[in-house]
Amino acid sequence: MKIQISDNIIKHYLQNVYFINGHSCAGKSTMAKMLSERYGMILCGENYHDVFPREKLSRWKQPSLCYFDTMSGWEEWLGMTPEEHWEWTYNVSQECIEIEICELIRLSAGGKKIIVDTNIPPDVLREISDYNNVAIMLCDPPDICHTRFFDRDDPDKKFMLEQIKKCKDPEAALKNFNSWALYRPPVETDWNNTGFFTYTRSDFESDTREEVLKILAKHFRLNGNN
Q1: Which of helix, strand or coil describes residue 18?
Q2: Which of 22, 43, 167, 176 is a Cys-bridge partner for 36, taking CB atoms 3.0 to 4.6 Å apart?
Q3: What is the SS3 assignment for 134?
Q4: How many angstroms separate the CA atoms of 19 and 54, rounded?
Q5: pLDDT tens profile 123-155
Q6: Distance CA 113, CA 88 (A)
Q7: What torsion, rounded to 10 degrees, do the Cα atoms 155, 75, 80, 143 define?
């Protein structure tokens, strides 16, 4: 028998969990970190599913999450076509959902509020969470990460740039890497019409972090306002 947990049960256990999803470069990670510090929340940053032991992943049940263990090297990954990369990231996202929900239920047992920089898609968030527990952060233009991806002070981004420089043809590898952000998949999330609260970032020069923080805190009702 395949075990299934009803959405209303999951929603009950995740009632103190707040999710931020949306476009790359919209400020999701920054806001999750700031909210955690300002309001004493547990932070589940990007890739928090990595807490699950890699040796317990199954290459048959979680093949995309196991890809880094089976690839020949980073140049193979960086050589993926935009179509191949989108399919891989989509599958990773799907495989992560179970791990992330289980981890959030585990963390929720302590009673503290949790803020999540998540890739759980909106259709799943609608089943397991509520309007005031989810915020969608967008960019205008949405493909701004094509030119600003490596502008962020992020260890993962620095590592990726180092791997690109190690490729036989770094210029071609960087060009291919950037093309991933411009790819339009056959099934694309309609971020503007998820039914959730949405904030769009269009100013990429000014420091608007405090302003956005207040907007999200009000939406999440973290100051006790209903």
Answers
A1: strand
A2: 43
A3: strand
A4: 24
A5: 999 999 999 999 999 987 655 555 556 556 667
A6: 31
A7: 30
Angle at Cα 48 formed by Cα 88 and Cα 93, nearest 5°? 25
Rounded Cα distance between 189 and 120, Å, is 12
Residue 49 CB partners (closer than 8 Å, separation 6+): 65, 96, 99, 100, 103
Q: Residue ranges of the alpha helices (H) in 143-194?
A: 145-148, 155-166, 170-182
3-state class (DSSP) for residue 127: helix
Q: Residue 20 above 90 pLDDT? A: yes
Distances (CA, A) of 56 to 59, 102, 196, 204: 10, 15, 34, 41
- Output the pLDDT for position 104: 96
- The residue type found at 62 is Q
The two most distant CA atoms of the chain are separated, in Å, by 57
Cis previous bond, 170, omega within 30: no
- CA-to-CA distance for 65 and 21, rounded, in angstroms? 20
Range 153-160 average pLDDT: 77
Residue 226 has pLDDT above 60, yes or no: no
Amino acid making up residue 112:
K
Collapsing DSSP to helix, strand or coil, 203 comes out as coil
Q: In the chain, what is the straight-line distance between the N-terminal and C-terminal CA atoms, in Å?
A: 42
**Residue with token string 């291919």:** 176
Instruction: With H, G, I as helix, E, B as strand and everything else as coil, classify residue 211.
Output: helix
Q: What is the mean pLDDT of residues 194-213?
A: 87
- Rounded to whole angstroms, how far apart are CA atoms 119 and 96? 9
Give the pLDDT confidence of 30-82 residue by residue, as tens digits: 999 999 999 999 999 888 888 899 999 999 999 999 999 999 999 999 999 99
